[in-house]
Amino acid sequence: METDGKNGPAFNPYVSVDCVLFGYDGERLMVLLVRQSEASSSPQQDPAPQAPCLADETAPSTLKLPGSIIYKEEDLDEAAQRVLYELTGLKNIPLHQFHAFGDKNRTSNPRDVRWLRRFHGLDASFERIVTVAYFALLKINRRIAPLSSDYEACWMPLDGLGFLAFDHNRIIESAREYLYRHAETNPDILFNILPRKFTAAELRRLFEVFYGQTYDVRNFHKKMARMPYVCPLDEREKGVPHRAARYYRFDRVCYNQFRKIK
Amino acid sequence: METDGKNGPAFNPYVSVDCVLFGYDGERLMVLLVRQSEASSSPQQDPAPQAPCLADETAPSTLKLPGSIIYKEEDLDEAAQRVLYELTGLKNIPLHQFHAFGDKNRTSNPRDVRWLRRFHGLDASFERIVTVAYFALLKINRRIAPLSSDYEACWMPLDGLGFLAFDHNRIIESAREYLYRHAETNPDILFNILPRKFTAAELRRLFEVFYGQTYDVRNFHKKMARMPYVCPLDEREKGVPHRAARYYRFDRVCYNQFRKIK
DNA sequence: GCAAAAGTGTTAGAAGTACACCCATGA
DNA sequence: TCATGGGTGTACTTCTAACACTTTTGC
């Protein structure tokens, strides 16, 4: 801050947070998007619940990441938690800040400009919105879906997303890289999106989807054996038309100890 | 951005960039800091060259990270590059954005508030400065030092920093973690801070300082042999009172190829 | 010849990879 | 009894870590 004085053409951009909420439904990685509505009313005033949508490229509205301008009395992290909560009802989910996007022209697409004016009432003189992006990895289950529909939100498969508002395609791509890197050193993030009890096959499936490769079944069992925090239970599957699989659970206490000694 | 409408108490904070410039002098890791001057004039108008300073806890001024409010026509990355250039004269150095700091009270220390008013002429109503932090790893050499002194800048040993302005202690600690993580996947960053020609001992010393551990000499030679981009030269040290060490150089072309196939 | 740093090879354990068959269950 | 997916062991390679002595040079 020493390199400009009173002279510098300082200015105040808007600061927002955007949340890249990855979800796993047991089969695919998804991302939670909301409609960039053409209506000028805010969703709080005019909730329009509707069925979880499919991508519709020809619709007049575009999809975008959930986000919000930060409020005066909020920390960045708090704003991100608020966005998550208002959209999904979830609290205390670790949200990871990964990058700030502040290019001069990131809000220059005419459609986006129009939307910002109508929906946010931003005056014509606004210059830019600097957004601080967060990601989280969520378990897709029944609790989330109904809330999402209030915001015309939908889970979209991560592969083959169409064109999104602003620079949100880029933000998601970036989030994905940070997610992978984060998971390397924090594998617990993956266990959060499995059921409390899970089978070896479920864990393997998750690894295969996440890392985009296949794992030899035998070697994967050995890999699991080397994770002391993956604890086999006595319980097994029931009612399956084949040999019943053993259940495992993730032991966080054990996980934290394991990390310390490593 | 769907979770607030016209209703939200949106506001515009200042947005700044701060640069954590790590430096290596062949022996220690340092960080480049500037004085949080009590004078109200900007350094451009009143450059006061002085000898590279030592930490002086009792002085009326505190040390801080170099940084700047972003200008209207600047991208965040451009602002960070500008700060780096104005302070060191260096261009085209990769600066890595790593985190945005936007806590409500990060600029609430009375001394910092006073400084912001005097030095930046920020009016009394400012609420907050959201700062986007960058780091880079530099080779400390003669070209940097003279420029630094114009800003009352000094290289401080990374360990044992005193109390800095704002939340800059925290920012540096965070930068350090990101730097380590970055170097894991991008080891080239370490070779940038070695001389063009370096000995195995120099490389080992760097690794030991950087990773805070010692390396067995023989194993380290094997480690080097597994880095195809570290090329032995025919040249050797001269005039040393012991067996002359071989020189090596970092081959970037080879490095890039090696990364692709991995 | 001596002080000071350079350079070199072997062994053991841990982790990763490739590969094929029998087991338990419900229908 | 059959279709379906669950579960297991061995051999090879690669990486890591521990460990001690000889070489070269200037003084």
Overall average pLDDT of chain A: 86
Count of helical stretches of chain A: 8
Number of strands of chain A: 10
**Helical content class of chain A:** 25-40%
What coarse outline of chain A follows from CA principal-axis ratios?
elongated
Walk me through the topology.
2 copies of one chain form a homodimer.
Chain A: E1 14-24, E2 29-36, E3 62-64, E4 67-69, H1 76-88, E5 96-101, H2 110-120, E6 129-139, H3 144-150, E7 153-157, H4 168-185, H5 188-191, E8 197-199, H6 200-211, H7 217-225, E9 230-236, E10 246-250, H8 252-261
Parallel strand pairs in A: 1-6
Antiparallel strand pairs in A: 1-2, 1-4, 2-3, 2-7, 5-6, 8-10, 9-10
Chain A binds a DNA duplex (27 and 27 nucleotides) through residues 199-201, 216-219, 221-223, 226, 237, 239-246.
Overall description:
Two copies of one chain form a homodimer. With 262 residues, chain A is of the alpha+beta class. Chain A contains eight helices and ten strands. Residues 1-7 and 40-59 of chain A have low confidence and may be disordered. At the A-B interface, strand 1, strand 4, helix 1 and strand 5 of A face strand 1, strand 4, helix 1 and strand 5 of B. Chain A binds a DNA duplex (27 and 27 nucleotides) through residues 199-201, 216-219, 221-223, 226, 237, 239-246.
Keywords:
homodimer, 262 residues, alpha+beta, 3-stranded antiparallel β-sheet, elongated, DNA-binding
Question: Quick recap of the structure?
Answer:
Two copies of one chain form a homodimer. Chain A is α+β, with helices and mostly antiparallel strands and 262 residues long.
